[in-house]
Amino acid sequence: MSESTSESATSTDAAKRPNILVILADDLGYTDLGAYGSEISTPNLDDLAQQGLRFSKYRTAPSCAPTRAMLMSGVDSHRAGVANIAEALTPAQSHSPFYQGHLRKDVVTIATQLRDAGYHTYMAGKWHLGYKDPALRPINRGFEQTVMMPYSGGDNWSNKSYLPLYEKTLWFENGEPYELPEDFYSSEFLVDKAIAQIDSNRADGKPFFTYLPFMAVHMPMQAPRKYTQKYLETYRQGWDPIRSQRQQAAKAMGLVPADAAMKHMNTTAEWATLSEEEQRYNAKRMAVYAGMVDAMDVHIGRLLQYLKDIGEYDNTVIVFTSDNGPEPNEITGPQRLLMLKLLDYTDDYETLGEKGSFATIGPSFASAAAAPLGHYKFHSGEGGMRVPLVVSGPAVADVLRGQISHATAYVKDLAPTLLELAGVADHRGQYRGRAVEPMTGRSLLPLIEQSATAVYGPEDTIAYEIGGNAALIKGDYKITFNRGPNNDGQWHLYHIERDPGETTPLEQQEPARFAELLSDYETYVRDNGVLPVPPDYNQRRQVTRNAVKQRLPQIALFAGLLLAGVAALLLWRRRRG
Amino acid sequence: MRNKLLIAAAGLTVVAVAFALLLPTLLHKAGLHPEYTGDTVALPGKRALVITTSHGTLNAPGETDGKATGVFASEMTVPYYTFLDGGMQVDIASIQGGEIPVDPESFFYAVRTAEDERYLQDAVVQAKVKNSLRIDEVDFTRYDIIFMAGGWGAAYDLGYSDALGRKVSEAYYDSSAVIGGVCHGVLGLIKAEDKDGKLLIAGRRMTGVSDKQIKELGIEVTPQHPETELRKAGAEYEKQTAFRDIFATHVVVDDERRFVTGQNQNSGYETAHQMMAIAAKP
């Protein structure tokens, strides 16, 4: 009897499919978690890392929507229709099917596949893959329950917009407009919703897939005062000691080689040249950032505790990662005044991070958040692309728990990995009788369930392009290209295994390898419909132009009313005279 | 009187502007960089090598100073993009490796091609040009097409390179590569030897830039002239001529269909496409 029961239990366990929880942070840097070398307190995520497997060379697109497209589909961002965020497309690009800013219809999401395979599918957070056409909303892309914010970002305390591009930040619940509660704070709210969604169908015993894309730590950086307070003294010496600290911690953990050099960005200011007031202000805004990460971790902890309380924790595969590296942009000059006035924010020191405030961290601290890597969000340097990836839960082999995998992995790989975990076959470009874009990501399961050391061979390539910034990785090497006033607009070759900081260009020493990778990139361009950007392309300026264009009806209406008023006044004066 | 002068000045300005705007079209109609309207083939998975000069100065013998020159851009860009758009992987090599000098006159607005425009925006190809492969380190037998670009710099190094001559021979005997070039690029063929130690191109029909064009361009100071050198090597030299040979073009496929040569900068399109057509038919 006892033996029979045991056998039955084993059989049941073998047949039971795991729940899947994908937690996506926004703009979190490579060393922003304690488990990756940070001074920020992230005990819940560190526990996940200790029980699971960390990846040292996992890469994403260096921008949010393309990463989300690849994560949701396993399809290259261009072929998925999201070569860049919709807000940044040029008129010429907008005509290409690969440059729509939203998932194309012939892309099938993992949510659709998991739902069709018997999973409950839930989503709470930032979507950024299209919403104007209701068919684009996550409720119509495979998720049976959603609480969704469609934009690139928004206020973390209210539905105020964070860019003049949007009138206010929209929210949708299950595809319909949703009013935020008065006591809204984004990380807390999203976790509450995720718990409510899982709780709603607990009784039927079906597994769930929860996709939880946080708004933290995307600008505006905002955190409750009690979190910011913890870090007020942490950054008083500036970014240089933080960079060094994180580099040392990353080396000590084996995330980067012991002799890896750190790239010094020409956008990093000299702390000593700042005034005392400037130093104090910069220290606080980074404290807000740290507080925001900390708060996210605390609320993730609530979700994990909930899973333990309902007995599902041990049967849940948990994936934590970020969509790209840290945000370097800050709001200065006339743009700042416009933002604060028009959108009703303050950036005063005293309330920075709290409700009504708008904080950024700037390029110097963004570089610290990506330490010891170079570059950050929007750039194809490692700091923009290499981010934490933690996989935890029953899928991870016991011998690998708490370890670090040094295998190359890419965001496209998460979709085939999760589908394989759920027992869903690769659709290979045909789904329920129709042609869909084939997944080109690779399952990472050999790295997680066994002790394989690679799923990419020395001849395999991973390539990427956004807004003209581009990269290609092949074996231990990478070529990279960054445009703009702070970059040289040229391709460079790096031995990325030895030199993750991309400090020593090798194209002169190894021209044959350089030529080979450049040709591989040309193949990528051809196969993925990559369109060049104009020579004078500037992503922020393009976003602004698109914003003005989108707001044109309002501007025209306002101008019309103004003219009508002036005309009426003149007529009235003439009649009276 | 002042009105008449103003009208005359305005008229002259209009004429000058119109001429400037029409100049590219006029030169094009006269024969510069003619459009290719023939057949095209795709060669996915195949490889092409474009070879250029490393010499960047139009200097008299014994001197080192002179006007800037190098590869004539269209003689590199036209075949490069023709091969690339045909699905080929394309490498760029030069006699010395490293940065290839590009003749700045190549990019004069009235002269430059669509491919030149494309190149000027193409950081990938610019990177290959800046870090070109050194021919000594290239295995020519790994390529299906080997194309030698001209430009006046080639008059100083392609025809003097023992390494290039040796590697052309290797490509001819040890692979099925289609070999050729345009303009001064064909000088890269003159040192290649057959297995009996005789010149490989002897007896073959070939073309390259005419002595007349060189004279008309005023670059007789250059040390090697393709028409002269091809004849010396025993090749059966052919050419077309025009009131100015810069507007002529001619392409020759040798009887064995292993060598394709083009007369000048105008011949790049047809030469490249002919090479691809031959490479496509084993």
Automatic annotation (TrEMBL), chain A:
InterPro entries, sorted: Alkaline_phosphatase_core_sf, Sulfatase, Sulfatase_CS, Sulfatase_N
KW Calcium (keyword) present: yes
Organism lineage string: Bacteria, Pseudomonadati, Pseudomonadota, Gammaproteobacteria, Cellvibrionales
Residue ranges crossing the lipid bilayer per the database entry: 552-572
Gene3D superfamilies noted in UniProt: 3.30.1120.10, Alkaline Phosphatase, subunit A (3.40.720.10)
Domain Sulfatase N-terminal positions: 18-424
Family: Belongs to the sulfatase family.
Name recorded for this polypeptide: Arylsulfatase
Automatic annotation (TrEMBL), chain B:
Name of protein: Type 1 glutamine amidotransferase domain-containing protein
Naturally occurring in which organism (per UniProt): Microbulbifer salipaludis
Domain of life of the source: Bacteria
Alphabetical list of Pfam families matching this protein: DJ-1_PfpI
Coiled coil start-end: none
Family of the protein in this entry: Belongs to the peptidase C56 family. HSP31-like subfamily.
Keywords attached to this entry: Glutamine amidotransferase, Lyase, Stress response
InterPro entries with a match to the protein in the record: Class_I_gatase-like, DJ-1/PfpI, Prot/Nucl_acid_deglycase
Domain DJ-1/PfpI, chain residue ranges per copy: 71-276
